[in-house]
Structures are given as structure tokens and as C-alpha cells.
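Methods, example record. To illustrate the input and output format used throughout this study, we show the complete record for Protein SYS1 homolog. The sequence lines were provided to the predictor; the line carrying C-alpha cells was produced by it.
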Amino acid sequence: MFYGAVVWDPWLIVAQIVCLQCLYYLSLGVFLSFLVGTRVSRMSLVYFFDFATVTTSTVTGWCVIASFLLSSIAGAGYLLYLIERAKKCLDFSATLYIIHLFICIVYGGWPSSVTWWVVNGIGVAVMALLGEYLCIRRELREIPITRYRSNV
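The corresponding predicted structure is encoded as:
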């Protein structure tokens, strides 16, 4: 990993966005299946993309909220391995949530729930800040320098 010469590669950026989005929805699906799937008779895309399911008035709504927040924590781990740069974490996190907003608008209309906006705002903040923290820790690790001594 040499960071001195930065080459703008749009295909790499698109591939990282696609991979990050897919991994985010995969982890969201896993968390929803464990937390919400045990409470409802049938899982559907409603829990992924409909703002009405993100509510604090039911236990199932709280499980949906927990699934979204746990997915943002998992997303920070994905940022560590896919993006690898602390200064790019906010960009990729915001892109993920903007794409999620567009999908939600297409699926169920403009999110009019304050809870949905708060949960997704916290999600993007957690994902970006935790991802930056993890990437900074990796970038600031000491570089191991080994000396080979000949035992003469």
C-alpha cells in the first residue's frame, strides 16, 4: 500500500461502491432475519426499504432499528477492508446512504418518518466515524523493519 502516487480510477471507485452496498444489504438481511424474522410470519423487502417499518411504537420496529444500526457498525468494518483510507470513509458512507435513500424513495415514496431520518443519520455517522477510527488505527501502525544480521 503506497499512498504517495494517487491515480484516479473510476472503475475502482464504482466497484468499491457496489461491493460496499452489497455487503451492507447482506449484513442488514442477516440482522433482519435474526431480529425481525423471528417476530414476523413473513420477511419481505418492506423491512429493508419502507420507512414505515422503522418505528419506536412496536418491538418489531425496535428490532428493525437495531438491525440498521448493527449494519452500520458492520459497514465500518467493510470500510476498513474495502476503502482502507480514513479520508475516504465519509464519502463512501454518505454515498451508501444516499443510494439507500433513492431506493427507499422508489420503493415506498419520500420517507416522512422522523424516526427513519434519525436512524439513518445516526447510521451514517456511526459508519463514517467508526470506519475513520479503524482506518486511522491501521494507518498509524508502526511499519515493522527487520534487520537480518549475519551471525559471523
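Annotations derived from this record:
The chain has a mean pLDDT of 92.
Helices lie at 10-35, 46-49, 59-82, 89-108, 114-139.
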